[in-house]
Design goal:
Number of strands: 11
Number of helices: 0
Strand content: over 45%
């Protein structure tokens, strides 16, 4: 089995910063991509940022210049530094990883449980 555990999130004022972290564990042979999605009430889940195993980062236009995705110090971890937060960034943020387990010949997507980010004064 593969598990993704998120940490961080919370309540912050507009213009503030938060940092989210995600750690993948379990029977992991390799990870192709790790990233973050978010889902606001009444809206579809959307990609926020992703990072490939070759360190290619991709960002949603709405967060470019404000959010930074990076690899953590520990293996199979990724962080999302969120600066200049806006009320429209309020959502549940989900960690996502495209993982090939040791017991499988193909990769598939795994999800964390989600962490709430609320930007409000």
């Amino acid at each position: 089995q593969v598990q993704l555990v998120e940490s961080g999130g919370g309540l912050v004022q507009p213009g503030g910063s938060l940092r989210l972290s995600c750690a993948a564990s379990g029977s992991i042979r390799s990870i192709n991509v790790m990233g973050w999605y978010r889902q606001a009430p009444g809206k579809q889940r959307e990609l926020v940022a992703s990072l490939t195993s070759g360190d290619i980062a991709n960002y949603a236009d709405s967060v470019k210049g404000r959010f930074t995705i990076s690899r953590g110090n520990a293996k199979n971890t990724v962080s999302l530094q969120m600066n200049s937060l806006k009320p429209e960034d309020t959502a549940v943020y989900y960690c996502n990883a495209d993982v090939r387990p040791w017991y499988d010949t193909t990769s598939r997507a795994y999800w964390g449980q989600g962490t709430q980010v609320t930007v409000s004064s």
